[in-house]
Structures
1.
Amino acid sequence: MYDERFVTPMRQELTRLGVEELRTPDEVDARLKDAKGTTLVVVNSICGCAARMARPAVAMALTNEHKPDHLTTVFAGQDADATDRARGYFTGYPPSSPQIALMKDGKVVFMLERWQIEGRPADAIAEDLVGAFEEHCK
């Protein structure tokens, strides 16, 4: 686990955009269990691909006209229990960090795993997210 003083700015990159941070399993369940509408779940991470690609891509995608009803995040490696609980909702997908899921009425309808994030420019990842938003969030 990393020093919270080091991690806080990484958390704030998403929370300042209005993304709700879920730090406990109870918070995850309160937001995801029986969720209606669309929910973005960003599995944040301290890794370079989260810093250079995933978080900037989320910021770019959230400027789109159509976006999820709810924006949430958990932080892998820091809030382990909350992250594990969130991943429990990602049926059929192995855990990865970072990872971005779009859920509709409690089911994953779009997923970006680390292998789809790592090594790609943030704007390309943002395009993938916007495509999912356009398909599922209108």
2.
Amino acid sequence: MKAIWNGQVLAESDDTVVIEGNHYFPVDAIKKEFFSGSSSNTVCAWKGTASYYNLNVGGKENPDAAWYYSEPKDAAKVIKNRIAFWKGVEVVN
């Protein structure tokens, strides 16, 4: 699987976990140079608190377009150390 935005591959792995239609990539599969921290957080009742990354590619920013759960609840432990995407990021096989 590949996560692509603005013509750039952001993450690539054969080891994604799919939850609620989202592919969660291993943290070591991302190209860190395109990610910067965000102060945004959201809470999911069964997964826990999500934190976000902004994407920066080719001079364009996509705020909060990637998320992760640093301490997922027990029901979602399978996505610990994994990152998912939205906001126009294409995930393709």
3.
Amino acid sequence: MYAKRKTYVKNEKMNEYLNSLRFAFYCMSHPMDGFWDLTHEKRGSYAAANTILALTLIVRIMKLRFTSFIFITVYWEELNIFLYIASIIFPLALWVIGNWALTTLFDGKGRLGQVYMATCYGLLPYPVIQLPLMLISNVVTVDESEFYSVISAISLVFCGVLIITAMGQIHEFSGAKNILFTIASLFAMLVMVFILLLFFSMITQGVAYIVSLVREMLFRM
């Protein structure tokens, strides 16, 4: 009886996960209604958001290996895959924190987790479009390269539009206010980068000073 109950609960969780993952496609085709229901009707899940983010990272890495050399030239000996992944995760984290921090001060309704979830859901067009485009890149000619470039740019613009729409829906902002806070969030990201660089610079200088001081003491002893 316990085993059946455990299996039932497991199946229910799996169904909820799959439904929330499928709902991402609804958000992609009906962003206004989709992103409202995502948080207000609780139709999204962190598991699905994490899956979409993981797919985005995987496709991004696969592009380096499987995209035609006509479009991407990769110097593998100089590539640090961990830094490459961080170059995607870090701006995402800055965006989520910056947007949440600013909107919280001005009556934004979205919580930090909701901003993260909606942002990840907004990334879905990237793996959906870039994965087949990556394969197509190996069969198109140089003369057809503009087709690849345009479709690739569309996937990025599509993601941006979805994320901006998502922020407006979860924070319940008007269109003009949403655009204003989108720009403000980008500025907040730059400010946070500056503060982090300043912090690490001070830490580096402090460590260097302590090391030089210890060396001087050891030399005098």
